Structures are given as C-alpha cells and as structure tokens.
Automatic annotation (TrEMBL):
Residues 4-380 form the Major facilitator superfamily (MFS) profile domain. Signal peptide: none annotated. PANTHER family: PURINE EFFLUX PUMP PBUE. It holds the Pfam family MFS_1. GO terms for molecular function: transmembrane transporter activity. It is found in: Cell membrane. This is Arabinose efflux permease family protein. The keyword Secreted does not apply.
Length: 393
C-alpha cells in the first residue's frame, strides 16, 4: 500500500482520539471543572454536532483550495485546539477549543478519504479507504483505554498535549511526503440536500441517526456506568473499553458478512432489533462481571454492524448519488452521537440513575427500527437523467 496512505491514516488516528477519548475521562473532567457529568457530556454533543455540519459544508466551501495546503492548515488548527484544551482554565474555554477541534477534525477526515482515493490506482481505492477507516477505529480500540490509564497516572490534560504532539508529527510527514493536489469542483450543498430529500433515503439516514443516538445515550456515560453499577477501578474500566473496542471493530466485519449472506435489507432489521434488546438487557447483567462482559461485547459488535448493510442499501437505492449518500450517512452518525450524548446527559441529570440511560437508549433504538422499516417499505426511486421514476420494491 502507498506510504502516503499510511501517513493519512496516522493523521486520522489523532483526529479520532479527540472525539472518542472524552467519554472515557468524563468523570475526571467533570470533577476538575466542578460540573455535573451531564454538563461534561456536552463536550461530546457539541463536538459531534459541529463535526456533522462542518464536514459537507467545508468540503463545498474549500473545494477549489489546493488539497495539501488545506490539509496542513487543518492540522495546524487541530494542533491549536488541543493546546487550548490542555491550558483550559474553565469549561467554557474548553468548549470553544472543542468547537475548533471539531471543525478541523471534520476536514482532516474528509480530506484523508478524498486524497487517499486520488493518490492510489483505481484497483487500490477500496483498500486505501479501508486503511483510513482503520485509523479511526484503532483510536477507539486503543485510544480510550490508554487515555484512561494516562489520565489516572498524569492527569487528563496530558492526553490532549500528546494528541497535539501527534498532529505536529503529521504536519511534518505531510509536508515531506505528500505532493500538491489541486482543488476541483464539487457538488453544491443545495444539490446534496436534494439528494436526501426523498422519504425512502431520508428515513434511512434517520435510522442511522437514532441508532447512534441510542448507542451514545449510554456509551457517552460508560465510565460512570461501570463505576456505579460494577464498582470498577480505572484499570478494569480501561480493560472494558479495550474489549468493547475490539468487539466494535469486529462488528463492522460481521455486518459486512451478514449483509453479503442474507442481504442488506434483512441485515438492517436484524441488527437494529438485536441492538435494542441488548441495550435493554445491559443494566440487568451488571450483577456479575462474568455475565456483563459477553453482553457488553454483543452491544459493542452491534454498534458498528449497521454501517456495512446501511451503506450497501443506500448505494442500491440510488447509485447515481451514492457518494453523496455516504457523506451524509457519515454526518448522520455524528448527529446521532450528538443527540444521544445530549439525551443521556438530560436523563442522568433528571433521574440521577445511570442505568436509565441504557433503557432510554433502547427506546431510541426502537425508533431507529421504525425509521428503517418505513424506508424499506417505500417505493424505490430510480434516477434516470434528471428525473425519477417510481417502482415498487
């Protein structure tokens, strides 16, 4: 594989860490700033919301800028954001820094994906994209548990200083090894929005949003969940995050295999239904760590199992706008993360019971299932030139 693709993947590891690692150190941040867990959880909510909006919008606004220059500018903004977090004197200042890192992360990830496709042969494009996504997923598997251990030993701020150092390394590597890549034309945002306007496609994206919202209603507060229900220390919490992360990455492969085996449509229904059931059962399994860990692993695997069949379904539904659909599906994921972490914070503040977040998440997953069923039962919209024809599935 092209060395440049590996360099881009390394940059996405740092970008993924900034978003995901906060969930693991949420109680420490809350204690440092003397705020509630629910309030601290808004660091995840705001980041995901800004990320979701910034991705497609900035891709349009910066389409004509030379790609290497834009990538380096994004990495520099990312570096500044993490330095600001390290020196944050209060929660408000940190929130502003999170906005800056969210904007720069959105550009880093989307540029990594688009540049990777341009610098490899057509036969290597799928592998290149897979390597970029692996960079993000590896930050989930290794970053969060390592972050918890580092926070416990040296304080949570050191984590963001380390991420800033990683971004400096990325700046050096990109400067040395990546060639200049001219900008180009991109599809206007208004045209992109029209592509998700149909009931069939729009409800499919809603299914993604509510699936992730149900997941993050509990996952954003997973550390206090483990502390309260299983009375685990930081070492065992980091082990749980590592096991969860491995299961989650494996779940992506499982979703792809299942989709190839029984088809995307059936896979979507099975994954979301099983996910809602597991979230409901999760708090009921905490009386025994031996029972909880397998249930947690199933939850982790299912949390990433929807993406492959959902992407296949979107491509099959409207092949002409498949690239746009993948972009918006990525934004839908971020909106779901934002919505779920916000709902979880509200539930936690209102009930004071951490187990309630899992049960509310299960209800939200059922809403996702209803959206999926609605989408799957709508007529297929077949694009021909600039018009659409409707035909029953």
């Amino acid at each position: 594989m092209n060395l440049k693709v590996f360099i881009l993947a390394l940059s996405t590891i740092a970008a993924g860490l900034v978003e995901l690692i906060v969930g693991g150190i949420l109680p420490t941040i809350a204690a440092d700033f003397n705020i509630s867990l629910g309030t601290a959880g808004q660091l995840i909510t705001v980041f995901a919301l800004i990320y979701a909006i910034a991705g497609p919008v900035l891709l349009v606004l910066t389409s004509k800028i030379e790609r290497k220059k834009l990538y380096l500018a994004s990495l520099f903004a990312f570096f500044l954001g993490n330095i600001m977090i390290y020196f944050s004197p209060n929660f408000t200042f940190m929130m502003v820094a999170r906005v800056l890192t969210a904007i720069s992360t959105a550009l880093i990830v989307v540029l990594s994906l688009t540049i990777a496709v341009k610098i490899v042969a057509p036969t290597q494009q799928a592998k290149a994209l897979g390597l970029i996504y692996m960079g993000i997923s590896s930050s989930l598997v290794l970053g969060v548990p390592l972050g918890i251990l580092i926070s416990n030993a040296f304080g949570w701020r050191v984590i963001f200083l380390g991420i800033a150092v990683l971004s400096v390394g990325s700046i050096v590597l990109i400067t040395l090894f990546l060639e200049r890549i001219p900008g180009g034309n991109t599809i206007p945002l208004s045209q992109q929005l029209k592509a998700v306007g149909s009931a069939k496609i729009g409800s499919a994206h809603l299914a993604t949003i509510f699936m992730l919202a149900g997941h993050y209603t509990i996952y954003a507060y997973f550390t206090p969940f483990l502390e309260t229900n299983l009375h685990l220390n930081s070492y065992w919490i980091s082990i749980c995050y590592l096991i969860f992360g491995i299961a989650a990455v494996s779940g992506g492969a499982f979703g792809g295999i299942l989709s190839d085996w029984i088809g995307a449509r059936k896979s979507i229904i099975i994954v979301i239904s099983a996910f809602a059931i597991v979230l409901f059962l999760l708090p009921l399994s905490t009386f025994s760590l031996v029972l909880f860990i397998p249930v947690m692993m199933v939850w982790g695997a299912l949390s990433w199992s929807l993406a492959p069949p959902q992407q296949s379904y979107l491509i099959q539904t409207d092949p002409a706008t498949s690239d746009i659909q993948q972009s918006f599906n990525n934004s839908a994921v971020q909106i779901g993360i934002s919505l779920g972490s916000a709902i979880g914070g509200i539930v936690l503040n209102q009930t004071g019971t951490i187990s309630s977040t899992a049960w509310v998440g299960s209800i939200i997953a059922i809403i996702s299932l209803l959206c999926a069923i609605f989408s799957l039962t709508r007529p297929t919209m077949i694009r021909e030139n600039t018009s659409f024809q409707s035909s029953e599935i």
